[in-house]
């Protein structure tokens, strides 16, 4: 039963399990105590810190353990931004950061740097945002910049070293969210802070790490506590910390070989899915990407139904479609990239994935997509766009209908209006804002803008072929 | 090798170990995901929440898991106090709360309710503090009250139900820190919030719990996150949560039998230590107390040295003496009680402690105390207080000397001054503020007050017998 969602949480690495078991017996006492059980716990904690720092590429006294990657990000953003309060309140982030970064930055004055259609920021745009150009609050100095090493939905790698360079020139510290990439190698470039999460690399839940380079100003914002240099409160989760450090070392040892194998499998998915399934958009950078993640979206598909079908077929994947989100909004990553969100599937392969599993995925996917499309009444992909139909400009009322229905109705109507005619799609579904322009791009039709309507939003589509 | 510091951290309960192992295999996936691994994780999380809520005495939807007891306290205090910002900023706490409570409350306007010599608050004093009588900021309304169910250093139980009554009358929510007592039973009385920590009851590190009763206003103060009802950010530490819930259930099943056995052993320590060791003060409530904790202090003893000797003899205990603290201040609990802090030893017995272990502790303790006293040059306990010596009032300069030296020098000088004479002890050691008055009380001499001196503090002692 292939589990293809390792970017959410990876199964426990055998080395992590072994280290955890040993540390349960040796490392349950308080490492701050002077008696033998405490001293033993302290030794384990120190050794884990050294191993993790070595993997991160920092000094042991620059690294603390936190209860999760989310906490590492929250503590890192608040501590670094608050310490530079005098410089200003602006926190510059890429528009495709993990929600933990966005929510932490949003407590300050957040400026989002846009990404291109592959999901990548440019160092020049970042430099502009540091200066206060663009969308952020005017006149506000920049306290902190945040950039992921690679994206959690698309695998696209960011130009961290370049952005670190422009941050250094601007005198702004850079926090790197390395949650998705740390298993594969250290993050290059002159970052100031780095956050990561152990359960993403096969370590146990309950462990994040935060590195703060010496010389980077840092002011903890939470109630005083003596643990972890006063930067992360609460009794250390020592057995899990030991397991996290051991498994990080283990996955690093396997990284080169695994990366080559997984990269080839992801390339196969990237190539074959559009060949096997009509009306699919594979998103993200095809080259500058993590080895194990690939994301694609299927027109006229309800993401939740496709996930259920894949689950029944034995494949566990996730989705950035609005119907799979509790807020009924599509993934902010797909939105920032301006790509299709309907029928979205993220595949993230665990270490040791067999080619046969990927082949089986490719074998079942087309049938499952067809099933979901047929059930929802999608237009026939084989049908020609057709001769000009009757009538001129038309209004298509899809109010109250959820993704992918508005796009399906649009696709059905378009062949029935003359070339040159405009269809005004009324929709109150957040996904439409992303998916109607994306559909136009895929179909070679003109997207002529949107405006607020009496109810919902009016999206204008002009038939051009 | 007896480990007698279970109040710091308890060894992992066998049930916790077993549950943790099972959940490592079944519960590593994201419980928010829809595929089978996620659904399995969700079932485990729901079951753990039901078991924990049952043990706490609340509804499952009133309980969240946090990464530690400290985090449960921090989140509980900030969420409850911030939600009542309009009522005022005062947070009323007992003076003997755990440091996590004091540090969280200190971010608001903290008022400490004093305790008696047994370490117990009175409901009347609490009621006064809620109204704003006493030491707190004048004119400030009360947002929240915090009271531990039992003290972590002395085991003294607090009158939680009574205090909950006065809180309800005042319309102020009460947060109970139940970290030390939850293993023994639910907390009675109409509390509003309750916090606890799994590694205190034999669960794994990395799990705290916070219950917030329905109807209690609560405003999370941290960056938005969907986990745990939006009240505790970060990926759930599911295997540890499962183990925590299972072990809470297990220790509760054993609680009645264990309590009787440990209570008898602690009674033996309370009775025998003062018989076996001269100049010892056993502190805390002898009756209204937790079964497993006892604290005593030894005159003329350096706490750190005694801990080392006990460690070498195979006993792991902790201490509230200033010399065992990184800040060189004695425990705030002992200070609030006004009892001796030098040579302080806390014994907290784990489940299943054998009587023979306690007997061996009682057998080695007197010799170790004698050794430490001899090494430091303590006055001979057998020597008579002596006839009147030469000279009248005297100044004893102990500036720069650390606990227990100032008290030792005082004890040596006193027999050499006439009855009625005053000794002015100059000291810059924080422990002296507590230990000189405590020594006077133990020796039946008059403590005549203190005042600031050119360097340090002058403590006035009058010989009365």
Describe the protein.
- Chains A, B: Its cofactor is pyridoxal 5'-phosphate.
- Two copies of one chain form a homodimer.
- The longest helix of chain A is centred in the middle third of the chain and has 39 residues, at 238-276.
- Chain A has helices at residues 14-26, 36-56, 69-83, 99-105, 123-131, 160-170, 238-276, 303-312, 332-337, 355-376, 405-413, 432-443; strands spanning 63-66, 90-94, 109-113, 142-148, 174-177, 193-197, 208-212, 280-283, 293-298, 344-348, 394-397, 422-427, 446-452, 457-462.
- The mean pLDDT of chain A is 94.
- Helix content of chain A is 37%, strand content 16%.
- Chain A is an alpha/beta fold.
- In chain A, strands 1-7-6-5-4-2-3 form a seven-stranded mixed beta sheet, with helices on both faces. A four-stranded mixed beta sheet of chain A has the order 11-12-14-13, covered by helices on one side.
- Chain A contains twelve helices and 14 strands.
- In chain A, helix 3 runs parallel beside helix 4 and helix 5 (123-131) runs parallel beside helix 6.
- The first copy, chain A, folds into three domains: 14-251, Type I PLP-dependent aspartate aminotransferase-like (Major domain) (Aspartate Aminotransferase, domain 2, 3-Layer(aba) Sandwich), CATH 3.40.640.10; 255-376, Aspartate Aminotransferase, domain 1, CATH 3.90.1150.10; 394-462, Translation Initiation Factor IF3 (2-Layer Sandwich).
- The interface between A and B is large, with 64 and 63 residues.
Quick overview:
Chains A, B: Pfam families: Aminotran_5, TusA. The structure is a homodimer of 465-residue chains. Chain A is built from 12 helices and 14 strands.
């Amino acid at each position: 039963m292939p589990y293809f969602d390792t970017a959410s949480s990876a199964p426990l690495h055998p080395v992590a399990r072994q280290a955890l078991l040993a540390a349960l017996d040796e490392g349950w006492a308080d490492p701050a105590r002077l008696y033998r059980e405490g001293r033993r716990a302290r030794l384990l904690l120190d050794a884990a810190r050294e191993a993790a720092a070595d993997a991160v590429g920092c000094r042991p006294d620059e690294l603390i353990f936190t209860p999760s990657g989310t906490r590492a990000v929250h503590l890192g953003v608040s501590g670094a931004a608050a310490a530079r309060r005098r410089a200003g309140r602006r926190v510059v982030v890429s528009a495709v950061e993990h929600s933990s970064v966005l929510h932490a930055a949003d407590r300050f004055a957040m400026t989002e740097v846009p990404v291109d259609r592959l999901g990548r920021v440019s160092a020049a745009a970042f430099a502009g945002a540091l200066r206060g150009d663009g969308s952020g609050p005017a006149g506000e100095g920049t306290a902190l910049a945040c950039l992921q090493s690679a994206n959690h939905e698309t695998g696209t790698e960011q130009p961290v070293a370049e952005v670190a360079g422009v941050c250094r020139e601007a005198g702004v510290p850079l926090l790197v969210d390395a949650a998705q990439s740390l298993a594969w190698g250290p993050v290059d470039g002159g970052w100031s802070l780095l956050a990561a999460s152990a359960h993403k690399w096969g370590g146990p839940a309950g462990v994040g790490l935060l590195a703060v380079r010496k010389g980077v100003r840092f002011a903890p914002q939470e109630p005083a506590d003596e643990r972890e240099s006063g930067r992360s409160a609460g009794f250390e989760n020592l057995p899990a910390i030991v397991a996290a450090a051991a498994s990080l070392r283990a996955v690093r040892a396997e990284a080169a070989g695994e990366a080559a194998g997984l990269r080839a499998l992801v390339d196969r998915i990237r190539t074959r899915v559009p060949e096997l399934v009509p009306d699919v958009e594979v998103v993200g950078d095809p080259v500058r990407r993590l080895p194990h993640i690939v994301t694609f979206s299927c027109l006229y598909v309800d993401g939740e139904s496709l996930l259920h079908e894949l689950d029944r077929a034995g494949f566990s994947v996730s989705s950035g479609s609005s119907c799979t989100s509790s807020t009924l909004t599509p993934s902010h990553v797909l939105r920032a990239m301006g790509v299709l969100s309907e029928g979205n599937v993220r595949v993230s392969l665990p270490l040791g994935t067999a080619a046969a599993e990927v082949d089986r995925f490719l074998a079942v996917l087309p049938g499952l997509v067809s099933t979901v499309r047929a059930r929802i009444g999608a237009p026939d992909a084989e049908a020609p766009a057709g001769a000009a139909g009757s009538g001129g400009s038309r209004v298509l009322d899809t109010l109250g209908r959820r993704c992918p229905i508005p796009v399906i109705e649009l696709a059905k109507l378009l062949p029935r209006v003359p070339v040159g005619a405009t269809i005004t799609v009324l929709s109150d579904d957040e996904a439409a804002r992303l998916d109607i322009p994306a559909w136009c791009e895929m179909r070679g039709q003109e997207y002529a803008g949107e405006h607020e309507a009496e109810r919902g939003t009016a999206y204008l589509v002009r038939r051009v072929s």
